[in-house]
Amino acid sequence: MHATEIEKEQETEVGNPYGYPDQARKVPLLDSNKTMFGPVTLERLRASLIKYVVIFLIGNALTWFSNPHLAAFGLGMTFPGAGFLMYATGDWVSVVAHVGLFLGTIVAFVLSLFLWVATGNLVAPILTWVGSALYAASMSHHHYWPLAPFIVPAMIMSVGVLFFYRHQVRSQHLKRERVRINEYLEEKTTVVSTIDHQGLPIVDELPESSAPLMRFILDRALQPIDTFHGFDRIDEFREAAKRYQLCNSSYALSLLQYNHTPAFRGYVSQAQENLAIKMQDHRCWSYWRYENLWGNFRSNPDPMAFDNIMYYGWYGAMLGMSASNENNHQFSEPGSISLKHPNGKVFEYSFHDVCEIIFNNFKNSEFCLFPCEPRWIYPMCNNFGAVSLVLHDRLYGTDYWAQIGDRYIQSLSDEFITLDGRVLAIRDYRTGLTAPGLTSSMADAAAAYFMNPVAPDLARRSWEILRHDFITRTENDIHLQTNGWDNIDFGNYRRSKVTTYGLIAAAAKEVGDTEVSDLIMQKLDTTHPSRVVDGIEHYEGASVSAHAVIFCARNMRPNGLHDLINVGVPKPWRDGPILETAEYPNVLVTKAVSDGQALDLKLVSGAQRKQNQLGLSQLRPNSIYRVSGAVESQIKADQQGKASINVALDTAKQVIVTPIV
Amino acid sequence: MACCIIGSILFTLVVGIARWVKSRVLGKNPEQPEMWRLSDIEMND
Fold first, then answer.
1. pTM
2. What is the predicted ipTM?
3. In this structure, is residue A395 part of a structural domain?
C-alpha cells in the first residue's frame, strides 16, 4: 500500500476535537515493486542517453573524414577535451602538451560542473565541452595520432559498461537492503501529539537555560530592517545565503510561539515581521538575475517569475507559519510583498500569490516538484512549498494541497526516494541525473523533520532508517555515523557538526524520539560548548542557521511542527487573554498560554531592570481579573479588553491572570 | 554524478581557501558574526 493510500485510509481516525493526531499510524514499508528510477526520471535518463549516443555516433563519424579539424571536433564532442588527443603524438613535448590539454579540460569541466550544481550555471559545462572541441578543431598540426579515433570511443564504451555493471550491482544491493529495512519497519508507527484532558497540547515553558539562545535569534531579528548585522555574509547562492538564515530564524521563532508562547505577541511578532520584510530586501534575491540568466537564459530578475522555489517556497512557509500563529494576515494583503529592484522595477505579490505560483508550478511540472537553481530540483525546498500550501488551505479555505498532495507524495516516493528509503538531495529536471553521494545523516534528519507536516508516514520512516542504521546508542553515549557533509556547518561551510547534531536532535524530538534527541544535544554541548556573554548564547564559529536549528531542537515537542502546520492555534488559545507587550530584553517570555479564560505566563529577567510593565489584551471588557505573581493583585480591563500589570523580575517568575466570575 | 559530488565539495574548498587567504595572507581577522549582539548597535550609536 502506498503512503498516500495509508494516509487517506487513516485520515478518518483522527478524533481529537481540535484535529491533533491522536492515533498512531503504521509506517509504510518500502515498496517492493519500486524500481531504481521513477517513470519520469527513467524517461529523462533514456532521452539523455539517446542524445549522448547520437552525439557520440556523429562525433565518431566525423573522425573518419580526412579533414583533421572535423576529426578533432568530432572526437572532442564525444568527451570533454578528447579532441586534443588527436594530436597527442610526435615528439614528447607534443604528447605531453596535448595530454595536458586533455587533462586540463577535465579539471575545467569538473569546475564547470561545480558551478552548475552550486549556482545553476548551465553555460559553464556546455562552454567547456563545446569550447574545448572547437579549440581542438582550430589547431593546425600536421601530425595525428591515428589510434585516437579507436582508443577514445573504446574507453568511453568501457566506462559506460562499467557504469552499467555498477548500476546492476548497486540495484541488487539496494533490493537486499530494502528487505532488511522492511523487517524492522514492520512494527513502527507515527507519533501522536501529547494532549491534555481538554484535547489540547501540553504547553511547557521553554527551559530558562534556553532563553539566552532565544536572544541570539531575537537580537538579529530586532535590528533595523535594512541592516544585516550578525548574519553570515559568504554568498547568496548556496546554503549560507541570507534567505536561509532569515527563514531558519523565523521557523525557530514560530516553533517557540506555537510550543511555548502561543499567547504572546510583543517583540516576537515584531521579530517575525522584521524577518519577513528583510526577505524582500534586494540583497536576498539579487542572485536570481544571474542564475536565471546563466541557467535558464532568461533576463527577468523577478525571483517569483520562474522556478526558484528556494526563495518563495521557504518564504511562503515563513509567512504561513507566522500568520497561523498570530492570526495576522498582513502579508496576505495585495502588494504586501514588494520586491524593489535597483533599476526601479517593483514586483508585487502577497502570500496568496506565492501559494498560487507554487501550486501552478507543482501542477505543471512532470516531476510535480520543480527546480530551485535552474533545472536542479531539491526535495527539501519543495517541501517548504508543500508546507506553504497546507498552511494556505487551512488559513484561507483553498484546496491546493487537496488537489496536488497525492501526486506530490507519489512523485516524491517514485522519483526522489531510493530503494533503501533515503531521500535524494537533488535531481536534474532535464537529464534526470542525481548526485547520490549527497545523501547524509543530516539530510535524512532534515527530511524526517521537515516532511512530518506533509507526509508524516514518510518522515517517520526516514527517521527509523536513520535511527536504526546510522545511530548507535551505548550506555551513556550516542554514536552517529557520518559522512563528509555531516562534518560541515551548512550555514557557513566551516568544519563542524553543529548543524548535524542540531537537525538530528530536532528531527528526533519532532518524531517523538525524545531520548535520542536529549543524548544528541548532550553530545553537542560536550563537543561544541557554547558561551553565554551578556545574557546571549553563542556557539563560537557556528553559523546563524546552526544557532536557529539548535534553538528549534531545544524548543520542539513531539509533532510540534506538524501541529503548527496542520492544526494551528486552537480556539481556547486564540480567544483567551494575550500578553500583548513586554519590553525586550528586560522580560524574556518563556511561556504564555491561555485556556480561553486565564493567562499563564513564565517570565525570565533578561536585564537588570527590576520592575517591568506588561500589556495585556483580549481580556473581557470591563471585567475584573485576579493576578498572581505581579505587583497588582487585581486589575480591571478597559472597554477594549486591555490592561497593564507590573512585574518585579529578579528571578524567573510565574504570573497568572484569572477572571473573577 | 561523481563530478557533481566533487563539484559540491569544491564549493566548500573554495570558501575555505578564500577564508585562509583573507586571514593568513591579507592578515584580516576572521569575522565572527555569531558574536554580534543588538547592544553593539546601541554602543556604536
1. 0.90
2. 0.75
3. yes
